Amino acid sequence: MITWWATLSVMMKILWGITLAASLIFVIQTVMTFIGADVDSSFDVDASGVDDPSAFDGGHSGMNLYTFRNLVNFILGFGWTAILLKDSIRSTFLLILVAVAVGVALVVLVMFLFKWLSSMQQTGTIDVFKQATGCQGKVYLAIPGERKGAGKVQITINNSVREYDAVTDGDALATGTDVKVTEVLNETTMVVEPLNSLII
C-alpha cells in the first residue's frame, strides 16, 4: 500500500485524496438522508445571480443546482472516472473532458432522483379536508341510505386512489355506483352522492 502510494504523482495523490473524501461524505449524506436528517445546504447564489437559491427551482432543494450535495456528487463522478480511466485514455484533455461529463451526469441523475422522491412523498401526503371535496370515485362496499350506516368508497385524489368510509344523505348506494364527495366528516369518512343525481 505504501509502495503503491509512493509511486503516484502529486496530482494523482491529490485526486485520490479528494475523491476518497467525497466518497466518505457521500456515504454519510446518504445515511443521514435515509434517517431523515437534512445534511444539505445551498450556496448563496443561484443560476441567475440572485441571492435566493430557491428561485432556481421553485423551492425544491432536490433541484437546486448550487448545493454542497451536488458539489460532492460532481467530485465523486469526476474523481472516480479520472482514476479508473487514466490508463485507458492517454490524452489528458480527453480524460478530463470525459470525467467532467460523468460528474455532470451524476449531478443531474441525483437531482432528478431527489425530485422524484420528493414528488412521491408529496403524493403520499394528502390533506383530505382540503383536497377530497369534489373528487370522484366508486362505491366499494354498499352504503346505507340517509346516513344509517357507513360503506366504503374508492376516491381518486391527486391521481392516487384511496379508500375511505362513506355515508350518504340520499338513498342507499350499491357497489360500483359512481359518486362524488360532497363533504369530509373526518380523516377517514366522507359524505358522497351519486354522480347521476346531478343530471337534470
Could you please describe the fold and organization of this structure?
This protein has 200 residues and is α+β, with helices and mostly antiparallel strands. 43% of the residues lie in helices and 17% in strands. It has a five-stranded mixed β-barrel with strand order 1-2-3-5-4. Helix 2 crosses helix 3 (68-85) and helix 3 (68-85) crosses helix 4 (92-124).
User: What would the principal axes of the Cα set say about the shape?
Assistant: rod-shaped
Number of helices: 5
Can you count the beta strands?
A: 5
Q: For the largest beta sheet, what order do the strands appear in spatially? A: 1-2-3-5-4
Q: List the helices and strands in order.
A: HHHHHEEEEE
Rg, please?
27 Å
User: What is the number of domains?
Assistant: 2
Strand % is 15-25%
User: Biggest sheet, in brief?
Assistant: 5 strands, mixed, barrel
Relative helix content: 40-55%
Low-confidence stretches: 41-62
**Sheet/helix structural class:** alpha+beta
Mean pLDDT: 79
Distance between the termini: 85 Å
What would the keywords be for this entry?
OB fold (Dihydrolipoamide Acetyltransferase, E2P); 5 helices; five-stranded mixed β-barrel; 5 strands; alpha+beta; 200 residues; single chain; 43% helix; rod-shaped
List the helices and strands and how they pair.
Blueprint: H1 2-7, H2 10-34, H3 68-85, H4 92-124, H5 128-131, E1 136-141, E2 151-157, E3 160-167, E4 178-184, E5 189-194
Parallel strand pairs: 3-5
Antiparallel strand pairs: 1-2, 1-4, 2-3, 4-5
Condensed summary:
The protein is of the alpha+beta class. It has helices spanning 2-7, 10-34, 68-85, 92-124, 128-131, and strands at residues 136-141, 151-157, 160-167, 178-184, 189-194. Helix 2 (10-34) packs across helix 3 and helix 3 (68-85) crosses helix 4.
